[in-house]
């Protein structure tokens, strides 16, 4: 209700209302000032409204008082139930977890005012899912309530959670949600074989590496906890078999490692062990996570093809062997109980197989044509053996026949050589190393020998040096060769092999005379090159002379520029010696050289001699006398150094700036004064050396030495 002090109740005042919800949510009686709500209010939609009211004159419409602002606050009531905004929930917990293991935390939200009453105070409880799980009424944390829940017994649980406001009191509003909890697997079950003995029947014709049977151990666990590894227990008759794990079915696949033979052994027995790959140390106390079963394999007899005595046959025959010569034989047997005869024949694939024949009954192999090793050195074909009783059962074996060589070809030079010799060659110089090749199949240790032919051995031009390692060197025998006299030399070389019968050949080598430099590098091997300068044209000679003239001009210009640059450098050096570094190479005279500089002034400032001319540098024509300020007696070392620095700064004849002037100054003020005999006013006889004993242990030897001389002086009167 609004009321103005100016309102006398006679109807002269009118009340107006503006702001949030004016006219839509709230209305005002213009005469009495009563404010009414014209529709329902929801605090969760809008918790407060800001309004402005004013009293105006009915007649003049003018405000009687300033506009007033006030707030209408909506008071909360419990009209909203708690809601699980994230529900329904999905959670998991490992099986065999202890009581109180954490599963999940749920949260409900109440839209009511949490600051007013208990409308928003939520309490959690389980409506469905006990006694397996429990929930904290305040925090909403779900935990396990029973120990050792087994996934293999029950895997899925559905828990119904309730959230109630008003602190769970009667009359409060409630909301619910569902939590689906899954027990995850742990390796708490070992693998177990459903039976202790497995019987398998395997034909003896099974191939090596093929699968001959499967066995399976059952593990109720899931995923990697159910992975099983199978092994054959050592010590049994399982060395012919192997077992692997099928990753999809977790079955043990038994494979054959070696061939089976019913006639040799009809049955095998061995044990197989199944164990888990991923063990859980928490369940070691349950027992060993492995199981063992026995496998019995019965070998079935099959009608098998003949078996050759060898997996492969290798034979040898000399080339040019007469047709029909037997070179070897193959043998195959029927190992079945009712042994059958065997027939042999060649597996024809190409025309090469026609070079040989085989006896169908005996299995002997003979030549059918003349063989040439140089044409074909080896023959490789297959022989098939079949049973007479069952021709469809056949077996095959490879036969390799090596054709042995008969020495019928002489050795020859392996490659054509382009041999050359220099005109300035010396005797004994190797100009070419040659090798030989033989078309025959050289046996191990065969050697080739090299020599000159009889007609060439008497000529004094070249010789052949056999190195005894199937190579030879062509050596010179003359001191120099002339291309003008003879350009080409033909050298016959005889090569022999060491096989039987001995074969030899004469190979003629062509040697060309070439012009070389002093290092033996070939410059030209053509005869025309000797007379090349004579045939030069006039234009070519003019071009050569023009190039020579240009080169001479360039050389002259270069020398002139060097001389001009050197002259300019010397002039600049004389004008400003400070900008140059001058190097002096003259050697001093040692300690006796006293003309270069005055060393007396450095030793004792009391002795100052006149300045002398320096000999270490060349003086200029302009020279100023060195000005030396007088030095007082007992001058401090700092004043002495400053004097020398000032002298060098004003003296133009002083060394350049990059020179180092070193001054030695012994100083003065010593308690014992100078030990030097220079400038001494007394003679040696007048000296008293007793004070040396008072200087300490470092002067003990010196005191003893001078004390002895004083004590043994015969002229001294005591």
Automatic annotation (TrEMBL):
GO molecular function (one): cadherin binding
Locations listed in the record: Cell membrane
GO CC annotation: adherens junction; catenin complex
Gene3D superfamilies recorded: Cadherins, TCF3-CBD (Catenin binding domain)
Alphabetized SUPFAM superfamilies for the sequence: Cadherin-like
Major location category of this protein: membrane
Domain of life: Eukaryota
Transmembrane segments: 530-561
GO annotation terms (biological process): adherens junction organization; calcium-dependent cell-cell adhesion via plasma membrane cell adhesion molecules; cell migration; cell morphogenesis; cell-cell adhesion mediated by cadherin; cell-cell junction assembly; homophilic cell adhesion via plasma membrane adhesion molecules
Keywords assigned: Calcium, Cell adhesion, Cell membrane, Cleavage on pair of basic residues, Glycoprotein, Membrane, Metal-binding, Phosphoprotein, Repeat, Signal, Transmembrane, Transmembrane helix
Membrane-topology annotation of the record: Single-pass type I membrane protein
Primary role: Cadherins are calcium-dependent cell adhesion proteins. They preferentially interact with themselves in a homophilic manner in connecting cells; cadherins may thus contribute to the sorting of heterogeneous cell types.
Protein's name according to its UniProt entry: Cadherin-12
Organism: Nycticryphes semicollaris
The gene coding this protein: Cdh12
């Amino acid at each position: 209700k609004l009321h103005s002090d100016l309102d006398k109740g006679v109807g002269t005042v009118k009340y107006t209302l503006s702001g949030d919800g004016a006219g839509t949510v709230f209305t005002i009686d213009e005469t009495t000032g009563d404010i009414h709500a014209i529709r329902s209010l929801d605090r969760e939609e809008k918790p407060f409204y800001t309004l402005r009211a004013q009293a105006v004159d009915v007649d003049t419409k003018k405000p009687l008082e300033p506009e007033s602002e006030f707030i209408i606050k909506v008071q909360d009531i419990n009209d909203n139930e708690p809601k699980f905004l994230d529900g329904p929930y999905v959670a998991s917990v490992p099986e065999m977890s202890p009581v109180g293991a954490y599963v999940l935390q749920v949260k409900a939200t109440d839209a009511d005012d949490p600051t007013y009453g208990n409308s928003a105070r939520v309490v959690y409880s389980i409506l469905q899912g006990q006694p397996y799980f429990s929930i904290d009424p305040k925090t909403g944390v779900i935990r396990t309530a029973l120990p050792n829940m087994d996934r293999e017994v029950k895997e899925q649980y559905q828990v119904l959670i309730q959230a109630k406001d008003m602190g769970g009191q009667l009359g409060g509003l409630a909301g619910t949600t569902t939590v689906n909890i899954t027990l995850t697997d742990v390796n708490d079950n070992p693998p177990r074989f459903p039976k202790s003995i497995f019987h398998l029947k395997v034909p003896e014709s099974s191939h090596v590496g093929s699968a001959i049977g499967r066995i399976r151990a059952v593990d109720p666990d899931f995923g990697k906890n159910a992975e099983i590894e199978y092994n054959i227990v050592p010590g049994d008759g399982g060395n012919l078999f192997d077992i692997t794990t099928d990753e999809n079915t977790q079955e043990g696949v038994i494979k054959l490692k070696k061939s089976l033979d019913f006639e040799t052994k009809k049955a095998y027995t061995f044990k197989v062990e199944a164990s888990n790959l991923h063990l859980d140390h928490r369940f070691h106390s349950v027992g060993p996570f492995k199981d063992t079963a026995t496998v019995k394999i019965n070998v079935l007899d099959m009608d098998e093809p003949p078996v050759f005595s060898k997996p492969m046959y290798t034979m040898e025959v000399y080339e040019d062997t007469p047709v029909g010569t037997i070179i070897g034989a193959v043998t195959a047997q029927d190992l079945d109980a009712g042994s059958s005869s065997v027939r042999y024949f060649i597996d024809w694939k190409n025309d090469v197989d026609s070079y040989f024949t085989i006896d169908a009954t005996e299995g002997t192999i003979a030549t059918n044509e003349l063989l040439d090793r140089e044409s074909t050195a080896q023959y490789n074909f297959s022989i098939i053996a079949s049973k007479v009783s069952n021709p469809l059962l056949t077996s095959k074996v490879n036969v390799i026949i090596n054709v042995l060589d008969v020495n019928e070809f002489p050795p020859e030079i392996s490659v054509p050589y382009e041999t050359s010799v220099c005109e300035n060659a010396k005797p004994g110089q190797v100009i070419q190393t040659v090798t030989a090749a033989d078309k025959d199949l050289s046996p191990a240790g065969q050697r080739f020998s090299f020599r000159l032919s009889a007609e060439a051995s008497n000529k004094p031009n070249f010789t052949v040096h056999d190195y005894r390692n199937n190579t030879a060197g062509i050596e010179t025998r003359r001191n120099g060769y002339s291309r003008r006299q003879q350009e080409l030399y033909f050298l016959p070389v005889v090569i022999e092999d060491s096989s039987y019968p001995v074969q030899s050949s004469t190979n003629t080598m062509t040697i060309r005379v070439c012009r070389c430099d002093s290092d033996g590098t070939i410059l030209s091997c053509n005869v025309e090159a000797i007379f090349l300068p004579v045939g030069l044209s006039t234009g070519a000679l003019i071009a050569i002379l023009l190039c020579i003239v240009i080169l001479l001009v360039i050389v002259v210009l270069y020398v002139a520029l060097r001389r001009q640059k050197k002259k300019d450098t010397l002039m600049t050096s004389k004008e400003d010696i400070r900008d140059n570094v001058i190097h002096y190479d003259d050697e001093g005279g040692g300690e006796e050289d006293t003309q270069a500089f005055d060393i007396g002034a450095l030793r004792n400032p009391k002795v100052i001699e006149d300045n002398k001319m320096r000999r270490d540098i060349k003086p200029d024509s302009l020279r100023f006398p060195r000005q030396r300020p007088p030095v007082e007696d007992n001058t401090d070392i700092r004043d002495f150094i400053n004097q020398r620095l000032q002298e060098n700064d004003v003296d133009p004849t002083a060394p350049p700036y990059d020179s180092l002037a070193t001054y030695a100054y012994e100083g003065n003020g010593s308690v014992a004064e100078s030990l030097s005999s220079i400038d001494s006013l007394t003679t040696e006889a007048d000296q008293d050396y007793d004070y040396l004993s008072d200087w300490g242990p470092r002067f003990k030897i010196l005191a003893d030495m001078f004390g002895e001389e004083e004590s043994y002086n015969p002229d001294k009167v005591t």
